[in-house]
Amino acid sequence: MAPPDRSLVRLLAGWLPRQRWFGGKDSPIDDLSIGTATELLPGDPGLHHLILDVHQNTTTDQYQVLLGIRSDLPERLRAHAIGRLAGDNGMAGHVYDGAHDPELTRPLLAHMAEQTTIGPLRFRCTPGAEIRTDLDGVPGTAEQSNTSLVFGGTYICKLFRRLSPGVNPDLEVNLALSRVGCAHVPAVHGWIELEDGGGGDPVTLALLSEFLSGATDGWRLALTSVRDWFAQTAPPGPVGTPTAGDAGNAGGDFAAEAERLGAATAEVHRDLAGAFGARQASAAELGALVHGMNEQLDQVGGAVPELRPHVPAIRAAFGAVRTAAGPLPFQRVHGDYHLGQVLRTDTGWTLLDFEGEPARTPGERRALAHPLRDVAGMLRSFEYAARFLLAGDEAPSPEASDALERRAQAWAERNRAAFCDGYAAAGGPDPAAHAALVRAFEFDKAVYEIRYEARNRPSWLPVPLRSLARLAS
Ligand SMILES: Nc1ncnc2c1ncn2[C@@H]1O[C@H](COP(=O)(O)OP(=O)(O)O)[C@@H](O)[C@H]1O
Ligand SMILES: O=P(O)(O)O[C@H]1O[C@H](CO)[C@@H](O[C@H]2O[C@H](CO)[C@@H](O)[C@H](O)[C@H]2O)[C@H](O)[C@H]1O
């Protein structure tokens, strides 16, 4: 049964902009329609899978929603309410974000295990995998752009919220890396896809992977270390040596971990080159790369006035790419590499989320790129972690802030250097030998982040903006 369109559309249009994963907060929704509606579970509670076409300015984006419907909404689900339907089309009750209702998530596993097809939705199981069907999924607590459901500490199912055409690179790359025996990615168990009515590739809707229980993501670990570092007085010693200040600290010095992360990154780059190939970039490709960087700079500069004073320095830095990147081979890379994309398990670092930057086109996400782009992404992330506590709710008084800014800088520099050392020692191109290139990629990433924060988390915008002055110096 199709959900009642008109009243539901009104409710969704009010609810959508308030969601963390909605990537269009920088402009109003001009129009919203339901592209596909598929009933996955009849009854009370019921579950409908919706794909929404959201029109903003000149673009149309597709978002995925699992719509729960109940006659009574229990207290635990009230925070996820979308609204109440009066009963047209024979459907009445409370509608809410069904991803937060464990009773509704269990059928997703059963469908993947059985490789069901329901309407345009195809549920798939990785060849050889046996998916358990007795687990309920609850959303994870990590800071993220999509919604991931954790099933009993066994699986994690990422529901892609803003959809991109074709096979999602996260699925494509994880399957390819598993095939070449890469030690730094979780196993893929299954996925959900939307058949493409137009004869093209199916659209990936969700990815079911092994859940790495007991692991902590790099962002959380780094923030703990920064907090400890802000609380200490002694300067840090060389990488790997304990400092007077970190004795007894829970987070302690992060530099040895940063170095190991650099090494894991180089190993994954080697495996990506093995799985997808690597080759010299042509002059035309280098030109297109620089053109794309300048284009993004113009767009973001147009939308965010605080960026404009830095535009000449950034444009000058981009000029280095054409000459400096030429001699180095291009290959598939992670594409949106930062501390939230890496998990520290008992045995080492695992890399997640090979989706690329959410704001990029599918072609850009799949394009061969320079591996030092990922290095620059992670270097930016060390800056983010160091400065996050200075910009958010925990921001210190202006008097304390100067001293902490210097400490933040020292933390970032130490961990950036350790990461680069680990990367080069494990066989990656030495970032220190390609400083102009890395700086250009860091600028590009900072510009991307300014747009990302403006669209997704406007209160975080000061974090990348503040680092522009430092990068420009
Ligand atoms: N296989 C996994 N095991 C354990 N936790 C995971 C796993 N995959 C993702 N996570 C957690 O979910 C978070 C978000 O995952 P990610 O794939 O980066 O989603 P998004 O693209 O929405 O940001 C990660 O930072 C990590 O904390
Ligand atoms: O959702 P994704 O993980 O694919 O990536 C997007 O969201 C990230 C934030 O969740 C964003 O990363 C930025 O914030 C991080 C801290 O939350 C920081 O570690 C990164 O360095 C910074 O870029 C990422 O840019 C965006 O694509």
Automatic annotation (TrEMBL):
Keyword set, alphabetical order: ATP-binding, Carbohydrate metabolism, Glycogen biosynthesis, Glycogen metabolism, Kinase, Nucleotide-binding, Transferase
Enzyme nomenclature, EC number: 2.7.1.175
Database matches in InterPro entries: Aminoglycoside_PTrfase, Kinase-like_dom_sf, Mak_N_cap
Uppermost EC category: transferase
Aminoglycoside phosphotransferase domain residues: 154-397
Coiled coil: none
Gene Ontology biological process terms, A to Z: glycogen biosynthetic process
Name of the protein: Maltokinase
Oligomeric and partner information: Monomer.
Highest classification ranks of the organism: Bacteria, Bacillati, Actinomycetota, Actinomycetes, Streptosporangiales
Gene3D superfamilies assigned to the protein according to its UniProt record, in alphabetical order: 3.90.1200.10
Family: Belongs to the aminoglycoside phosphotransferase family.
Pathway membership, UniProt: Glycan biosynthesis; glycogen biosynthesis
Organism from which the protein derives: Actinomadura rubrisoli
